[in-house]
Structure formats: C-alpha cells, structure tokens
Amino acid sequence: MKAHVVAVLDEQRAAFLSGDDDAGGEAVIAAAAQRLARDAARSLTGVLNGTGVLLHTNLGRAPLADEALDAIRDAAAGYSNLEFDLESGERGSRYDRLGGLLRVATGAEASLVVNNCAAAMLLIFDTFARGREAIVARNALIEIGGGFRLPDVLARSGATLVEVGATNKVYAADFARALSPNSGIILRAHPSNYRISGFVADVTPADLVALGRRAGVPVVEDLGTGALFDLRAYGLPHERTAGEAITDGMDLVAFSGDKLLGGPQAGIIVGGASAIARLRANPLLRALRVDKATLAALGATLRLHVDPATRERIPLYRMLATPVDALRERARALQRQFPALAVVDTEAFAGGGSLPLDPIASAGVAFLPAGGATPALARLRAAAPPLVARIDDARVVIDLRTIDPTDDVRVAGALAALFAAN
Ligand SMILES: *Cc1c(COP(=O)(O)O)cnc(C)c1O
C-alpha cells in the first residue's frame, strides 16, 4: 500500500507543479486503493466461474477434490518419499509413485508423468522421432489452444513430418506407403476441438497398431482429454478412454491431468514397459519433471476415479452429475433475492478441448443490465471474489453448473454490489 501512496503522491506533486489543482487527500487515498485492487486482480486469485464451461483453460481448468488438496498438504507440508524407497532405504524414483494406480486406471504396463500433455508429446517426439520421420494423417494436424500446434512441436524436436492422406479421407494404405527405414513414429492425435464430418474416412486405431507392429515402428496416440471411463454414464457422448487406446495396442498414449481426469495440471504417458523405459532414459525428462504437489494431487484424484462410488467427489464429476432441476432450484433462490433476475435454461460445455460441440443441459440466472452487458460483466469481475459471467443476446448470464452451491451466497454478494451501484 505504501508504495502505491508514494507513487500517487509523486504523480499529484508533478501534476500540481505543472499547474493542476490540488486533488486533495481523499482523491489520493482513492487512487492508491484503486491501484491496490488492480494489483490484487493481476496476481493469482480464486474466481467464481459462471460461464458454464466446466474445464475452462483460462480459469484454471479442473478444480481439485478435497482429497487431492489434503494429499498436497500431506506430501508438501513436510518431507516425503518422493525419491526415496521406503523398503530398501535407498534412492527411489518419483515416477514409480503412481505406477500402480495408472495400471489399474488404464490397464497399461508402465507409465510416466510429466508437466503437461504438451511436455509429454515433446518428450515422445524427442525420444522416438528426432532426426527421423513422424507419420501423421492430414486430418490430425491439430492446433490446440496456447500455441500448441502439432507440426510445429514436431519440427522443434527435430522430426520430419510426413503427412499422409487428405483432410477428409485417410486410409491405412496411405500410412503403409509412407513407412520407410527412417520412420520414427506413427502418430494418432485426438481432434479435441474440431470435427471433420461428411465425406470422410479414417484408419482405425487397431489398423494403425497392426501397421506399426509389422514395420517395427512405435504407434503413439495424443489423446489430450484423458477420459478414464465411459462418459455416457453422465449423459455425454462417448469419448475415447486411455484404457481403450491401450487395449487397441498403442505403444504410448499421452493425456492431460486437468481435463476429463479432473486433477492437477500434468501430462500422463502410459504404454509398454520398453517404450516408457526409453522415455525415462531421455535427459530432457529432467526439464519436464513433475513436482511432488502434482503427484500427490494426481494420486488422490486417480484413487477417487478407480472406485465409481467415490468419483463424484471429484468436482468435475460432481458438477456433471448435478440434475438440471437442482440448478433451477438454486436459480429460483437467487431470483427471490433479486427480482430483476430471470431463471433461464442454458447450455454448459465440458471445455478443455473435450466434446466441444456437445452441450450439457444446464440452468442459471440472467438479466438485462440498464447500462449494457459489457460494463455489467466488468462490475461482476471487480467483485470479491470476482465473478466471471457471459453475455447471451445482450443479457448477462450466470450458469450455475460451474458454481459450487456453497458459493451461491458469494454470487449473491457480487449481484448485490452490482444492483446497488445501478
Ligand atoms: C489439451 C491437449 C494437449 C495439451 O495438453 P496440456 O496438458 O494442456 O499440455 C495436447 N493434445 C491434445 C489432443 C489436447 O487435447
């Protein structure tokens, strides 16, 4: 605060010396307080997500389960066996800590966890495709958010991209023709955020694996979203799971920890023991390594996944499982406090590059602000905690599926401040 007061006073002094009127003490305090608030908003802070996008990359993707937070505390408040084998009393590997859980969750022989899925792909390319060729179908040359563009990441790791097929149609024969003594990997990538439909053909994962086996070339799948079980249980369309990719025989499968897994940011690689051993031997791994807090949170989240009875303790699945009626009921409670609100049915989305085109029935509150929706959104973002809402047809909409019921009182607080100011 003091630094802000000094800065404001300096400005006032300069303004006064160049002939402006004295702004007075109140104005100085107000200006300093405004700077302080701006500082707070720029540093990392919790927000209320009223957007209805469950895995909102800009809002930190998956909220963590209480069990995951407890595990972080447990592992990070003191010392841990991060790289220490408690049986032998000798040095151990952090990469062994989640092996058993990931085997149960995906059926894979071996695993490795790195910083995120982008790091996982970088490590895989560097290990298997540096100075060699990576064969990719033209329908899978993905760009996901944040500048991750598959062809560019491949080029960065010194691999030569060999594109096969057409954008809409790719056949096994296209891959077969592209195989050469210099083939490093065959790559399959999940089209997370787009869909090619109409006059299309694609190669089945099993056919790709068969081709790779015959040629002795590892087949790798960038799965991205990382579903661990059939999402139809939550009324969503089927999303390919890590276990299915392993069953199809993929040598390596990479996915994110903070998308449909509902855990911390991490890149999980599962696959055959020999392929994983080669990744572990790559010195680049040291720069991509995952920290103890992430391992702790990921372990706790995987444990909740393994037993379907505990899955909904993961906030993502709790939010997905909430009946629309329960959301409407909460919306009506807000409406009773603020008669300007309307209870509305909305469409929520999984987000995080998963199921981008499949809406999830949801509900929330909406209102038409007198001064326009954009300034009203800004006011809500200035609340404590900030509330991020969205605009639909000039109305401000707050989707309640992505807001924890215990936070409804804070939503009410943000709305009270907004309506009081109007
Ligand atoms: C999201 C995604 C990635 C990147 O994952 P991060 O964990 O954000 O690095 C890579 N590939 C695909 C297909 C994705 O959907």
The CATH superfamily label of the largest domain reads: Type I PLP-dependent aspartate aminotransferase-like (Major domain)
Overall mean pLDDT stands at 93
What is the gyration radius calculated from CA atoms?
Answer: 25 Å
Strand content: 15-25%
* Lateral strand order in the biggest sheet: 5-13-12-11-10-6-9
How many separate structural domains?
Answer: 3
Helix amount, in percent?
Answer: 25-40%
Query: N- to C-terminal separation?
Result: 29 Å
Q: CATH topology of the largest domain, anyone?
A: Aspartate Aminotransferase, domain 2
Unreliably modeled segments: none
Features:
alpha/beta, Aspartate Aminotransferase, domain 1, seven-stranded mixed sheet, 16 helices
Question: What does this protein structure show overall?
Answer:
- By secondary structure, the protein is an alpha/beta fold.
- The chain folds into three domains: 1-41, no CATH class; 48-63 and 324-422, Aspartate Aminotransferase, domain 1; 66-313, Aspartate Aminotransferase, domain 2, CATH 3.40.640.10.
- 40% of the residues lie in helices and 19% in strands.
- The chain has 16 helices and 18 strands.
- The protein has helices at residues 2-17, 25-42, 66-76, 99-106, 117-128, 150-156, 172-178, 205-215, 242-247, 273-280, 285-288, 292-306, 315-321, 324-337, 373-381, 408-421; strands at residues 48-49, 53-55, 84-85, 90-91, 110-114, 133-137, 143-144, 148-149, 160-164, 183-189, 219-224, 252-256, 267-271, 342-351, 360-367, 387-388, 390-392, 395-399.
- The strands form five sheets. A seven-stranded mixed β-sheet has the order 5-13-12-11-10-6-9, with helices on both faces. It has a five-stranded mixed β-sheet with strand order 2-14-15-18-17. The chain has a two-stranded parallel ribbon with strand order 1-16.
- Helix 1 packs across helix 2 (25-42) and helix 4 (99-106) packs parallel to helix 12 (292-306).
- The longest helix has 18 residues, at 25-42.
- The chain is globular and about 80 Å long.
- Pyridoxal-5'-phosphate (PLP) binds at residues 116-118, 142, 144, 148, 189-190, 192, 222, 224-225, 256, 267, 353.
- Pyridoxal-5'-phosphate (PLP) is lined by residues 116-118, 142, 144, 148, 189-190, 192, 222, 224-225, 256, 267, 353.
